[in-house]
Amino acid sequence: MISKEITNKFRLGMRKFVYSVSVVSNRHEDEINAITVSSVTSVSLDPPSVVVSINRQSSIHPSLISDSLFCINMLTADQQEIAAICSDSKQSDERAKHFEFGDEDVPILTNAFLNIICRVDQIFQYHSHSLVVGTVQDVKSLENQESLIYQNGNYKVLPKSY
Ligand SMILES: Cc1cc2nc3c(=O)[nH]c(=O)nc-3n(C[C@H](O)[C@H](O)[C@H](O)COP(=O)(O)O)c2cc1C
Which domains does the chain have, with CATH numbers? Predict the structure, then answer.
């Protein structure tokens, strides 16, 4: 049994990491779902794959089913408002209008720093969260942007690198 003290020290410790902020989006039937995340990481290059940790209580969770498409939209500094909307359950009706459809049947944020279009390959349930592993179908990228990052409970801007 892990004590509340260790859980609290861990929670505070994790606030020190510098996170890149992304929005995971998908379409299920006529609904566009989107959730702000910091838990994206690459898994392998062969196959090109990513993993993201998704709370099982979140509204997007039931639609992240095997073989379905989703997009990881890595945000620029100009997209802080979208991050706020997609992390506030009271603003779920405000999300869909920010997304567009490209060649694939998945909603994307067209001005994101990076769009990684993925197909769900594996889902590992771990207590409150699911680790969703996606294989990469396509990547769209902008250059010369400022990244939106998150540390210590606050959004910040990472200046452009050249
Ligand atoms: C910077 C930031 C990062 C987040 N990262 C994650 C994450 O990796 N996984 C997750 O399930 N929720 C994460 N959240 C919380 C969800 O965005 C939030 O609970 C959201 O409201 C859930 O979606 P829903 O309102 O549609 O249920 C994060 C929130 C913020 C502000």
Answer: 21-151 (2.30.110.10)
Which numbered atom of ligand 1 lies nearest the CA of 57? 27
Nearest to 117 by CA among 130, 101, 131, 135: 135
Cα distance between residue 44 and residue 121, in whole Å: 13
Residue 58 CA: nearest ligand 1 atom is: 27
pTM: 0.98
pLDDT for 48? 98
Per-residue pLDDT at 162 exceeds 80: no
Cα separation, 132 vs 58, in Å, equals 13
What is the per-residue pLDDT for 1?
A: 87
Distance 35 CA to ligand 1 centre (A): 6
Lining ligand 1 with CB less than 6 A are 21, 35-39, 53-55, 58-60, 87-89, 92, 150
Residues 111, 141: Cα–Cα separation, whole Å: 9
Residue 161 pLDDT more than 90? no
